[in-house]
Amino acid sequence: VGVFFRPVEKINSVIETYPKGIAGFKRFIELMETEPDIEDRPGAVDVSGLRGDITYRNVSFGYSPDKPTIANIDLTIKAGETVAFVGPSGAGKTTICSLLPRFYEVAEGSITVDGVDIRDIKLASLRGQIGIVQQDVFLFAGTIRDNIAYGRLGASEADILDAARRAKLDGMIAALPDGMDTVIGERGVKLSGGQKQRLAIARMFLKNPSILILDEATSALDTETEKAIQQSLAELSKGRTTLVIAHRLATIRDADRIIVVDTNGISEQGPHDTLLAAKGTYSRLYHAQAGLR
Ligand code: ATP
């Protein structure tokens, strides 16, 4: 935890420690579900239809006040852009992303969305504009319909069906005897990893947020399924500002920009080809992972 392995021969530690990364993000998602202890400021505003321009200005934060986890982060993400955070385990990729839905408050500096400080936006409104897709899909015992509708409670049947279709879940649903009424969860039909991912994607089509956070959602899947899911995620991220927390570098080559986070903060950023040519940390990580396949 918090250890940064620099030598190339130790880079596989990044991969070995991936389960820890999943555990970290589980905490992250649990926070989305729990009642926040953050109260809205007086005069906090509702936002809807955000463009999704994001700016981090000199942002510092630590889980314990005496020890900064990230320090002096400056970052501008344009509306509709897809950026991928890469770097060694524990460097702070998840932490940077978790400040945006205000799971934690910045200690110093500020984060704005469309120019508005996120502390001046009502929390429910802010989180309503942010969608998260993660490795571990939260399913509850209930019908497929209800599980999709969880993305936007009260959604119409037509909208739910449309979301299922866009996430390419419709074929599977049609093949089930009870269709949308099929009960999933502990006592019902068990979904495969890929189907769970698709369900999570359907929820997000339904929620239709301006901003997406993807926690490398596909690494537990076989290659074929992973490719198909990647395609659906690319569909989902169209027209939305997307932050990808990447663990496997092969899947984020097409990001508009790759941001390398290490213990000293953001050390490099740029498109895949530019970073490879720069022969810095990204290029090292990339070649090390490619060699391990
Ligand atoms: P990974 O690739 O393993 O997911 P990461 O780059 O996303 O790593 P973070 O999860 O942001 O890194 O963690 C940064 C540091 O903060 C690590 O030292 C981690 O142990 C610590 N940390 C993360 N979450 C918490 C938490 N909820 N409480 C205390 N410390 C935490």
UniProtKB/TrEMBL annotation:
Membrane topology recorded in Swiss-Prot or TrEMBL: Multi-pass membrane protein
Molecular functions per Gene Ontology: ABC-type oligopeptide transporter activity; ATP binding; ATP hydrolysis activity
GO cellular component: plasma membrane
Main location as per UniProt: membrane
Domain spans labelled ABC transporter: 54-288
Subcellular localization, as worded in the UniProt entry: Cell membrane
Keyword match tRNA-binding: no
Key words, A-Z: ATP-binding, Membrane, Nucleotide-binding, Transmembrane, Transmembrane helix, Transport
Similarity comment: Belongs to the ABC transporter superfamily.
Protein name (record): ATP-binding cassette domain-containing protein
Organism: Ensifer canadensis
